[in-house]
Amino acid sequence: MDKPKISHIHIRGIIVSTSVGVGVLSMPGALGELMGNDGWIAIILAGLLLIPFMAIYDRIFSLYPDKDFFEIGKETMGTFIFTIFLFIFLAYLVLTLGIISRTLAELIKIYLLQTTPLEVIMLIFILASTYIACYEIDVIARASYFLYPIIILFALIIVLISLPNADFTRLLPVFDIDFISTVKGVKETFFSFLGFEIILLAIPFVEDKEKVFKSQLIGAFTITVIYLALFIMTISHFSLKQIEIIVYPILMLIRQLDLPWFFLENLDGLVMALWVIVVFSTMAPFYYGSGKILSKIFRTKKHKYFIWGLIPVIYYIGILPKNFIELIEDMGRYFNILAVISAIIIPIIILISASIRKKVLKR
User: Fold this and answer.
1) What is the dihedral of CA 130, 136, 142, 145, to 10 degrees?
2) Rg of the Cα atoms in the chain
3) Given this model, what pLDDT does residue 294 score?
4) Which of 219, 302, 236, 245 is nearest to 53 (CA)?
5) CATH number for the domain running over 8-355
6) Nearest-CA neighbor of 219 among 39, 341, 342, 50?
């Protein structure tokens, strides 16, 4: 079978599509509660914080240009230790899939399909994601890049429909925050940027690797701009007290708008439909990554059999929380820990091990 090939511009699509997902709807509210109207500062700082980690990813594959993530990990850390890390990475991806599917199902049931059982919505969405996740990384990358403009359109529509009634004086005063609040805000926002680590599975298949880092930066910049625009629009319409009690302020923003020149009455339904596509583009790479990790652990040539086997696991994780509070708080706590290990700690250990190994071999 031919080795999958993708372009450096597809890396941009993967980064944006995997990062902008369910978290984008609640991020302005959580950030506003922590930092008030200065939350935009945390978004910029979190966006800048992505750069060193993307540089780490790029450096790893520049040291081993002809190897993929799994080959590099085994060579630098040993099969046993790396397999343990792979199970952690797998747990992170599967937990994320469960959280995404449950969150999506909850919101679709509230805004679009009130009479449809939650379990049915979850299962349908998981099955739809299963189809594309069975393909190789080149198909996943092209699908992500195809959906890339839709993600931008999703944000652009929200900005345009909310702009006429925006009160930008709500953003004042600026820089009225302390150091502790800023750190907490950056931490909260950084988790909304997570998803970019999926490129660890894609970079080895890029034909023009010299431009990968540039595409990573463009992807990070695009996410930062989207988050900035949505946060500013949210703050310009709601008071800080309102934001603290609204779980999804962006959806509330859409529902409260009443523009006379709009010919669509249920505008929130249209935006929710777009958002479903956005979340689908987030779920597919995570699902693919889960299957690929299992295929490497059990040393099989195809990962699609594991994709089908993960359906009941993802469904069970998604349906496990009794309510939305448990989903966000309890599962969110495990998500944060696993995300830090998978996106930050594992690549750093691999880079350190690879650098030491290269120096030892040169002697």
Assistant:
1) 60
2) 21
3) 95
4) 219
5) 1.20.1740.10
6) 50
Residues 6+ apart with CB under 8 A from 52: none
> What's the pLDDT band for 268 if we cut at 50, 70, 90?
low
Alpha helices, DSSP H, located in the chain: 8-19, 23-35, 39-63, 69-77, 79-111, 118-133, 137-162, 179-193, 212-235, 240-245, 249-256, 267-297, 304-309, 311-319, 324-325, 331-340, 346-362
The pTM of this model reads 0.90
Tell me the CA end-to-end span of the chain in Å, nearest whole number.
Answer: 38
Do residues 338 and 95 touch, judged by C-beta distance below 8 A?
A: yes
Cα separation, 156 vs 139, whole angstroms: 26
Closest CA to 88 of 358, 347, 355, 303: 347
Structure token digits, residue 81: 């230790």
The residue type at 48: L
Could you tell me the sign of the dihedral formed by the alpha carbons of 131, 135, 141, 146, in that order?
Answer: negative
In this prediction, residue 149 carries a pLDDT of 85
Q: Where are the domains of the chain?
A: 8-355
Instruction: Name the amino acid, one letter, at 200.
Output: L
The first and second tokens of residue 216, run together, are: 């990573």
Provide the β-strand partners of residue 206.
6
330/334 Cα distance (integer angstroms):
7
Listed in sequence order, the residues at least 6 apart from 51 whose beta carbon sits closer than 8 Å to its beta carbon are: 217, 220
Residues 304-319 as b or e (16 or more Cβ within 10 Å = b)? bebbeebeeebbebbb
